[in-house]
Specification:
Oligomer: single chain
Shape: globular
Radius of gyration: 28 Å
Number of helices: 21
Strand content: 5-15%
Helix content: 40-55%
Length: 587
């Protein structure tokens, strides 16, 4: 059984709907507090009961008691009448088995709740920094994880009721733009725009790079153009804007293909913060945090050292008076706190940037720009690997383009669908293939602990069996097929759940756990907790479907099972939507 949990005792109110987990944890917390302050119960699923409570061991140790004796004392304080039956098990666990009446009440509440028990929030402002491709470069597989993970988190926060401000921090400033602008002029604006507008950004960049490396005159022109760009020359800025606009339009096409919610208005690149960088240096200096080291202006945040134990600098301004990523990121923190009024800031960026963000945030806090009340986290993630468990590349050794990867997934899905008997038109099949391809690519990423690497294997990802996105889509489509076969309208609101069959009860237990799965994914910033829940629910439904006939069952059993199917369908569809995955009605 998978484990769901919510750290601490945070509560969200949602129109009177209280999740099963909250009910149990609230009662357990009161019982633990009655025995001793300072020990929190830990609630998890158990193979021997519906839930198992721990924390007794720590409490018993602090009291010098036998854990089973302590568990018995906690149980005597525990008021779960009508909710669960409790017994002491093993060395001192508390096994909780939910009553059928309580499950009936919970399921009936879920039927009338469009949020399926997921609580709303007080409307915090959350800034999520994700995707972040570079201008004049095509998006590749290296952008996949940031884009998919960031978008899933954005969807979950929005659903919870928070105001999400997406920040696509694209690379649109710096020395490479000198050579790119000069290359644009050499080609001519019309030809350059024609090349960029069809998404051929890599060829444009490679052409500029080759010329820069081989032609000294071009190199000098490029360097002069950088100075003009940074100095605010109007014509240079106009040419630079062409590169940015064409790149942003290309990014938008990729996001539409992936069904990602980022839009051109979310693009706030490095250039946006350029005019704030002098203030960053001035204010750090006024706070006494800035130190000159080797000609550069640096901050030495506490606790960071190199391999020799020497203090590690965060370089704010380089010896040539240029600014690096640290200055831009510090300016971004100030802007997001002071101007956007963020309550929470998330950076969905690869794990190798961990130390950089730790140092930036440490300096921001030392400067007073990042108050303790603002949650600010680096949402780190691992790499996408090929079958050889090395960085995923094409056979020729080139980086895999993101749009090409999605196209291949769509083609494979289309071939698989064409082999299945279906009344779909070619257009309908192609549309479904696109939905399946997106699900395959996104779910493979989101079902993995984000901090781990994972192997990109399209054959496995596109399969309709196993822990895959298409499997979950198929489970939802099979559920909807049940309702297409109904001969008369059906209303689930009057259903009573007796849950006489074990498979019915197991499915019900999965359904009432949905709020905990969403809460756990948000609390830990780990979308795989929701993905894992959905796969577990689909497996419970499969077991139920095989053991419990629905349409041919006698009443009132038929209506009860239809209601379980309706709730499962809605839960899968909502859960998948929070991951950015569509739930087709037919497959």
């Amino acid at each position: 059984m998978r484990v769901w949990y919510r750290p601490g005792r945070t509560r969200w109110e949602n129109g009177g709907v209280t999740s099963t987990y909250d009910v149990l944890l609230g009662r357990l917390s009161s019982a633990f507090d009655a025995i001793s302050e300072g020990t929190d119960p830990v609630l998890r699923t158990s193979d021997r009961s519906d839930y198992q409570a721990n924390g007794v061991m720590a409490l018993a140790k602090s009291r010098g008691e036998n854990p089973r004796d302590t568990a018995q004392k906690v149980m005597e304080q525990l008021d779960l009448a009508g909710i669960a039956e409790v017994e002491v098990a093993g060395p001192g666990f508390l096994n909780l088995t939910l009553t059928t009446q309580f499950l009936n009440d919970q399921l009936r509440t879920l039927i009338s709740d469009e949020r399926l028990g997921v609580a709303g929030s007080t409307g915090r402002t959350v800034v999520i920094d994700y995707s972040a491709p570079n201008v004049a470069k095509e998006m590749h597989v290296g952008h996949l994880r940031s884009t998919v993970i960031g978008d899933a988190l954005a969807r979950m926060y929005r659903f919870r009721g928070d105001t999400v401000i997406a920040r696509n921090h694209v690379g649109d400033w710096g020395t490479p733009f000198g050579m790119l602008i000069e290359h644009l002029l050499d080609l001519g604006e019309d030809e350059a725009i024609a090349s960029l507008s069809i998404g051929d950004l890599d060829s444009f960049y490679r052409g500029a790079r080759a010329k820069f490396d081989a032609d000294d005159a071009f190199k000098e022109r490029s360097r002069a153009r950088v100075v003009a760009l940074q100095g605010g020359d109007a014509e240079t800025r106009r040419l630079w804007q062409i590169l940015v606009d064409e790149s942003v339009a290309y990014f938008a096409e990729v996001y539409r293909a992936l069904d990602v919610t980022l839009t051109p208005s979310d693009v706030v690149g490095e250039s946006y913060y350029n005019d704030m960088l002098d203030d960053v240096v001035r204010d750090l200096d006024a706070l006494g945090l800035l130190v000159e080291s080797g000609g550069a202006l640096c901050v030495f945040p506490e606790g960071f050292t190199n391999r020799d134990g020497e203090p590690l600098p965060l370089i704010v301004q380089k010896r040539d008076e240029g600014f690096g990523y640290a200055a831009t990121d510090l300016a971004a923190v100030r802007d997001r706190v002071s101007n956007l009024h963020a309550d929470e800031i998330l950076y969905v960026v690869g794990a190798p940037q961990g130390q950089h963000f730790e140092m930036v945030l440490a300096v921001a806090r030392a400067a007073g720009w990042l108050p303790a009340a603002v949650r600010c986290e680096h949402v780190a993630f691992g790499n996408v690997l090929g079958p050889d468990r090395k960085m995923f590349k094409t056979r020729s050794g080139e980086t895999v383009k993101l749009i090409g990867l999605l196209d291949e997934a769509t083609q494979r899905a289309d071939v698989a669908l064409a082999l299945r008997p279906s009344a779909m038109t070619e257009s309908e099949r192609r549309h479904l293939a696109t939905q399946i391809a997106r699900a395959a690519v996104k779910y493979a990423d989101l079902s993995t602990d984000r901090q781990r690497d994972y192997v990109f294997d399209l054959d496995r990802m596109i399969a309709f069996e196993g822990d895959t996105g298409p499997y979950l889509q198929y489970a939802h489509a099979r559920l909807r097929s049940i309702f297409r076969r109904l001969e008369h309208p059906w209303d689930p609101s009057a259903t009573t759940f007796t849950l006489n069959d074990r498979a019915e009860r197991e499915l019900a237990l999965g359904l009432v756990a949905f709020p905990e799965a969403v809460d756990a994914a948000l609390a830990t910033l780990q979308p795989h907790r929701l993905s894992g829940y959905l796969f577990d629910l689909a497996q419970r439904f499969t077991a139920f479907y095989e053991a419990c006939p629905v349409l041919v069952a006698p009443e009132p059993q038929r209506s009860e099972r239809l209601a379980l199917c309706e709730l499962t369908s809605r839960t899968l569809a909502l859960g998948l939507s929070l991951l950015g995955i569509e739930a087709p009605e037919q497959m």
